[in-house]
Design a protein that fits this description.
Elements (H helix, E strand, L loop, with lengths): L9 E10 L6 E11 L4 E5 L6 H8 L7 E6 L2 E2 L5 H8 L2 E4 L11 H7 L8 H14 L15 H13 L5 E5 L7 H18 L2 E5 L11 E6 L2 E7 H5 L1
Parallel strand pairs: 3-8, 3-9, 6-7, 7-8
Antiparallel strand pairs: 1-2, 1-4, 4-5, 9-10
Helix pairs in contact: 3-5, 4-5, 5-6
The protein binds adenosine-5'-diphosphate (ADP) and magnesium ion.
Adenosine-5'-diphosphate binds next to helix 1.
């Protein structure tokens, strides 16, 4: 596939989304329009229940588009088949609130799993895993199981796992929610640095005001509407 770098990473037009059937059907996203450029770091904020996770799962090709258009890396996800949705997911790294590490695998093995579907040799995989572990400051913990790591360390392993396959887009849903302030900021700074090094686009949902300054742009959801966009500096200053 030929990639056109001037195309946005994610482009959304007139997107609506509904949950439930029949009389229980309820609209949760209303006419969302958004363009995210390649390499941009965007923070999405807004009250609980406003539709942030729903929007993130639609962008992440984890849920089918019902109405409107959503294009990710030039692939239109409206009417995408299961196979096309799976292919789109290969370009995306996901980080969730709960780190979702597998308890019976070490830090190293959890990260290694993310490379299994990629075409990399064992030696190249080992180099990449060690390098990403070192980037998150955990090379000395690679043989530890999740139960022997702190919350911040587990979330750093989750970041390493999301970034080891060098995805073009990172989607992070409240990745610092379970962390104290200092480790929360550390985790996001590491994510930002790695993503900038790899030219990766980040969309991060958070309630954490102390990390807003790390974004190029902040977007705000309320009751299913994207109510405003703003330049990060305008809010932080
Ligand atoms: P946020 O992430 O901003 O808290 P969500 O996207 O999780 O918001 O939820 C948006 C709305 O959709 C809420 O009213 C929520 O109750 C509802 N909702 C979320 N997931 C489901 C689901 N799987 N089935 C039905 N309703 C849902
Ligand atoms: Mg949510």
């Amino acid at each position: 596939m030929v990639t056109n770098l001037s195309e946005p990473a994610i482009s959304i037009a007139h997107l609506n989304h509904y949950y439930g059937q029949g009389s229980l059907r309820k609209q949760v996203l209303f006419d969302i329009n958004l363009r995210i450029d390649r390499g941009e770091i965007i923070i999405m904020t807004g009250p609980s229940g406003s539709g942030k996770t729903t929007l993130l799962t639609l962008m992440g090709s984890l849920r089918s588009i019902q109405e409107g258009n959503l294009t990710i890396l030039e692939q239109d996800l409206l009417h995408a088949t299961k196979e096309q949705m799976t292919l789109a997911r290969r370009n995306i790294g996901y980080i969730f609130q709960a780190h979702n590490l597998l308890s019976f695998l070490t830090a190293y093995q959890n990260i290694e799993m993310a490379l299994e579907i990629q075409e990399v040799t064992a030696t190249a995989a080992d180099t990449r895993i060690r390098s990403v572990l070192s980037a998150v400051g955990l090379e000395h913990r690679m043989d530890y199981y999740p139960s022997d790591l702190s919350g911040g360390q587990k979330q750093r392993v989750a970041i390493a796992r999301a970034l080891v396959s060098q995805p073009k887009i990172i989607l992070a849903d409240e990745p610092t929610a379970a962390l104290d302030k200092k480790s929360g900021r550390d985790v996001v700074e590491i994510m930002e640095k790695l993503a900038r090094d790899q030219g990766c686009t980040i969309l991060l949902v958070t309630h954490d005001n102390r990390i807003l300054d790390l974004a190029d742009r902040i977007i705000y959801m309320e009751d299913g509407y994207l109510v405003h966009h703003s330049d990060a500096n305008a809010i932080v200053q």
